[in-house]
Amino acid sequence: xxxxxxxxxxxxxxxxxxxxxxxxxxxxxxxxxxxxxxxxxxxxxxxxxxxxxxxxxxxxxxxxxxxxxxxxxxxxxxxxxxxxxxxxxxxxxxxxxxxxxxxxxxxxxxxxxxxxxxxxxxxxxxxxxxxxxxxxxxxxxxxxxxxxxxxxxxxxxxxxxxxxxxxxxxxxxxxxxxxxxxxxxxxxx
Length: 189
Known about the structure:
By secondary structure, the protein is of the alpha+beta class. The chain contains five helices and eleven strands, in the order E-E-H-E-E-E-E-E-H-H-E-E-H-H-E-E. The strands form three sheets. A four-stranded antiparallel β-sheet has the order 2-1-3-11, with helices on one face. Strands 6, 7, 8 and 9 form a four-stranded antiparallel β-sheet that branches. The chain has a three-stranded antiparallel β-sheet with strand order 4-5-10. The two termini are 21 Å apart.
């Protein structure tokens, strides 16, 4: 059996009745990104199959922790003896004179939501993507805001939660996850 990994993808489409491309973030567990296409299509049914991927990564390293997927066996998302959880944050920010809200999506290994938010506020994006009257913020576009940052385990599809657990193990000298960035048609993955 192939090893399983946590995958993160930014998916896009122009749903019926919209004038600009919309985006959302998908998390899935599988051996590779192409194996997750059926789940990806179920994730956003309003797109009527007209999805593409703008960026994706196999999540294996976050904040000096090796990320692995194991069988659930009723164990929570954490390495043995650890209280760390994997959080997803979507930061929003602005630039003077630009008619746009910019976003920065990040994963954080932290013990709780407050610490995850504090880590997010230390990023260059947070510090440099706002100005008086239009401060940077942790965005609620994907169900995440300053008061409600989600652990990845909480936003995974129910079938993943029932079958798998995400394990964070502290390790040194981990390679950085490869980011696949560009326009990817699902049939070309």
